């Protein structure tokens, strides 16, 4: 008897089961203070807001295990779930279909397909995240900036929504997901210029930046494994 496929299509599944072994991914992040009301308006009701400093990020993944190479970016906000602190990925844009599907279907990451322009050296990153012709995040980062205190954004707590095939109802699960075997290869604090755009379908621009708290560039390895259904 053949083994049951992990996902569709059964004869040639779009993605394999976790874990995914990421090697030397590069990520640029800008941490910004925004209005708490904007975060509350977007945060799922199952979570409690914890602070007004959020992360705008863009990352390049040259080797994501069986997911191959791709890029992505998005917004992470600080929150609590039943008193436990962590981070919720509020919006996320990715450049390949298997990463999009596995992120949504397994962990509840709100991934959509889009585009990333990425140009980096050892000390600088110029990156742009966009979808359907609309620029969402533009970051121009240069290393050699001041250190700063970052909000706690791990583990991730996501809402996995499972639509009903019979009507417009849906089941919602709370998924906790942590990165494993993380190894930092290079890290630099820096300074960054950031521009935020958006539209009704991708409302990144709901977040008006009041203050840039700090910026960093990270190159690292990690393993993305199964999560836990906790609610």
Number of strand elements: 14
| Spatial extent as radius of gyration | 17 Å
Low-pLDDT windows of residues = none
Shape: globular
* Mean of residue pLDDT values: 97
Largest sheet: 11 strands, mixed
CATH topology: Acetoacetate decarboxylase-like
Order of helices and strands: EHEEEEHEEEEEEEEE
Structure, explained:
- It comes from Rhizobium lusitanum.
- One of its GO terms (molecular function) is lyase activity.
- The protein has 231 residues and is mostly beta strands.
- It has a single domain, classed as Acetoacetate decarboxylase-like.
- The protein has helices spanning 36-42, 97-107; strands at 20-33, 48-49, 53-61, 70-81, 84-94, 111-113, 115-120, 124-131, 134-143, 156-163, 170-177, 179-196, 211-224, 228-229.
- The model has no long low-confidence stretch (mean pLDDT 97).
Give a quick set of tags describing it:
mainly beta, 231 residues, 3-stranded antiparallel sheet, 2 helices, Acetoacetate_decarboxylase, 11-stranded mixed sheet, Acetoacetate decarboxylase-like
Helix/strand layout:
Elements: E1 20-33, H1 36-42, E2 48-49, E3 53-61, E4 70-81, E5 84-94, H2 97-107, E6 111-113, E7 115-120, E8 124-131, E9 134-143, E10 156-163, E11 170-177, E12 179-196, E13 211-224, E14 228-229
Parallel strand pairs: 5-6
Antiparallel strand pairs: 1-3, 1-13, 2-4, 3-4, 4-5, 7-8, 8-9, 9-12, 10-11, 11-14, 12-13
């Amino acid at each position: 008897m053949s083994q049951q496929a992990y996902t569709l299509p059964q004869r040639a599944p779009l993605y394999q089961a976790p874990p995914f072994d990421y090697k030397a991914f590069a990520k640029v992040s800008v941490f910004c203070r925004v209005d708490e009301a904007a975060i509350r308006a977007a945060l799922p009701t199952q979570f409690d807001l914890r602070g007004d400093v959020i992360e705008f990020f863009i990352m390049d993944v040259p080797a994501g295990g069986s997911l191959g190479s791709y890029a992505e970016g998005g917004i992470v906000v600080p929150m609590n779930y039943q008193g436990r602190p962590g981070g919720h990925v509020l919006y996320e844009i990715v450049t390949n279909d298997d990463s999009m599907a596995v992120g949504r279907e397994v962990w509840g990451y709100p991934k959509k397909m889009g585009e990333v322009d990425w140009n980096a050296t050892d000390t600088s990153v110029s990156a742009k995240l966009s979808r359907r012709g609309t620029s969402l995040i533009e970051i121009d980062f240069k290393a050699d900036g001041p250190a700063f205190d970052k909000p706690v954004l791990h583990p991730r707590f996501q809402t996995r929504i499972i639509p009903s095939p019979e009507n417009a109802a849906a089941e919602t699960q709370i998924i906790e997901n942590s990165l494993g075997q993380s190894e930092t290869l290079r890290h630099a604090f820096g300074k960054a210029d950031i521009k935020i755009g958006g539209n009704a379908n991708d409302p990144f621009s709901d977040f008006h930046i009041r203050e840039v708290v700090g910026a960093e560039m990270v190159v690292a390895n990690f393993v993305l494994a199964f999560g836990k259904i906790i609610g």
